[in-house]
Write a structure and sequence with these properties.
Layout lengths: L8 H13 L6 E2 L5 E2 L2 E6 L4 E5 L14 H65 L1
Antiparallel strand pairs: 1-3, 2-3, 3-4
Length: 133
């Protein structure tokens, strides 16, 4: 099961494995006759695969139930976009890791600068005290 809030590297690996095992893309729909008696036809690869998405239009399309035609189009679009979306998610995780690493370096540098400024202030104070004597 895939998390609905945040994907980690393990979940991305699972998604990538599912994508690799799925009928190869790109997927498409028969726009001339998308709905047939047995559902919405989705073709994979060079038309060598077929997936049927079933739905019941008797319920109509509502926000709660959805629209089977749009569901099938959504599945096709996500299948075709999956490799790019997985790559973008991996890049986002890598960027998060790099941001955390750079934030640690920045915190160290800020501490070192603060220490150096305090030391310089003490040295300046001592010099001022020595000049006053």
């Amino acid at each position: 099961m895939i998390a609905t809030e945040m994907l980690d590297a393990g979940e991305l690996d699972r998604l990538a494995a599912l994508e690799q095992r799925a009928m190869r893309g790109p997927w498409s729909m028969d726009d001339e006759n998308p709905h047939r008696e047995d559902g919405w036809l989705v073709f994979g690869g060079d038309g060598d695969g077929l997936l049927t998405c079933h739905g019941n239009l008797a319920y109509g399309a509502t926000d709660d139930i959805g629209n089977p035609d749009q569901d099938a189009r959504f599945i096709v679009a996500l299948r075709n976009a999956a490799p790019a979306l997985i790559a973008l998610a991996r890049a986002g995780l890598a960027a998060q890791t790099e941001i955390a690493r750079l934030s640690g370096i920045l915190a160290t540098l800020e501490g070192a600068i603060e220490d150096a400024l305090e030391a310089a202030g003490r040295a300046q104070q001592r010099k001022g005290d020595g000049d006053a004597a």
